Amino acid sequence: MRSGSPALLGLAYGLQADVRADAGRFDEAIFFGKLALAEVQRQRARVVALGAAAEAHFLERRSEVYRSLADRLAGQGRIAEALAVLRLAKRAEQADWGQRGAGALDDEQVAELLPWSPAERRLQQQLAQTLASHQALADEYARLRRLDAARAITADEQARLATLAQQGRQERERLQAQLDALLQTVAAATAPAPGARQGAAPAAVSDAAERAALARVRPREAGVVHAWLMLSPQGLRSVVVGRERSWVRARRVAPQEVSRDIARWLEVLRRQGAGANGRDELGARLYEHIGRLIDEPARQARASRVVLWLDGPLRHLPLAALHDGRQYLAQKYTLLHAAPVLDGAASDGRPAARTAQVGALSLQAFGMTEAAAGLPALPGVARELCGIVRGPVQGLSTDAAATAVSGCADGGTRGQGPVAGEAVANAQFTAARLHQALAAPAAAPSRLLHIGTHFVLRPGHVERSWLLLGDGQRLGLAEVARLDLRGQQLVTLSACETGAPAGDATDGRQIDGLAAAVLGAGARQVLASLWRVDDQATARFMQVFYEESRRAGSPAQGTDWAAALQRTQQRLLAGGGSAARPHDWAAFVLMDARR
After folding, report:
1. 378, 532 Cβ separation under 8 angstroms
2. DSSP 86-97
3. How far from chain centre, in Å, is Cα 348?
């Protein structure tokens, strides 16, 4: 049922939400924020047809609505609702990023997935009915005005227009009286119960329902916390959930300032090379603004592992490299990034494999050492492949000089790495060869896929992101999402470029998009770099990582890849020298499918 322009209604509801939040009436603001979100989402289908500029403006506006609503919910202690809004935001964002709006959530889905309480749903229906009761007259008046302006109006229509104009004032007064009465109902329904604690759920929300919903997102293991970080127009907000309690923290800082600081810090790390240790003024400010929001609750929870849900430009931030004045966060916590997956199946409807397989590891590695498609050569990939695979290597140069550089045995045809498997490089690394390897029977229970080539990830949409094959062809990210990665316990993409520019960080949805594509295709976890690291440093990192994978985890549980990543970072730090610079070891993040 139409109740006016979604664009105008969305703005009106958003203004109502802001006015009430400024007055400290946050539960009313939350109700109108939900209405604003539902109306803004209704614009999605028609915005795509207006072009890229309109679409970009829409996506930015919609993100602000999602984040403001989640921030206000968290600030009122309605944590489960806030997290539901954030999950919905991720789902909508990835649907948009994947296919230029194809598969995006429609207004009915958003209305269904938004965490409405029964009282809020009743209020929403009453408001829609009130607006709809006046809509027919408003539509008729607008139609007759257009005919009058075009000088195509009949005498009877002219008389009807005059009558409607006379009735208009009375109609507006009647509508305003109905809305005023409804707003009073909203205020009463969203007010906290008498004697309720500060931040308690309002009367419209059941405390029992909130506790039950929150219990579903609490970690089951001891020593683990789940941490959500968001950047809304109001500033930074963190929600940290442990087994027994939760923490909500806020930093009122301009989002543009945070975005600039992240981009500039990444540039400092990149520009200063081996001399950059992350312990500069920018790094210290980012720890105070962001790192402390996670660090203090995790310390209070006595956690050793943090599962992270990051939002917006925060996805570009190497949290492992933040330093508290004594230690890097990588020295204190095992960090695992949660990634959005739109559903529980691989991209063509196949059931995705999510259960860890216990047993010996089998590694299929692919790489590109030569320059192609306007991208530079990656000579260090030869050493990377030979340093991680214990088994045959095909496609590398076999002359003595090249063999000396790569470290391969048997004239450059056999790797001496820590994990049994095989590697294919350069011209032999084709799309057909990749599909063949994925379809081949597993040589061991735990299958691993490692790809060492340029993987260009760009802001905007999936069509702009692609992987460079060894024969110089491009494999688009949409095609990657159609690979059969079931049974792959880990997919490693060692040379990603996520497109974070100097000056201002992008919103980072392409990082989540990469993870969603790989994990949605059936892989259990993905290791990727936030920026391109020197290929020689990458080779060193990967060799240590696969060595540590044999020590992380247990025979009963399988490899703990997050622990292997932390052990690698700690080992490189302890070794000193150029390998200890955060720019090299903090670039790599482990992402896991979470819904």
Report:
1. no
2. HHHHHHHHHHHH
3. 22
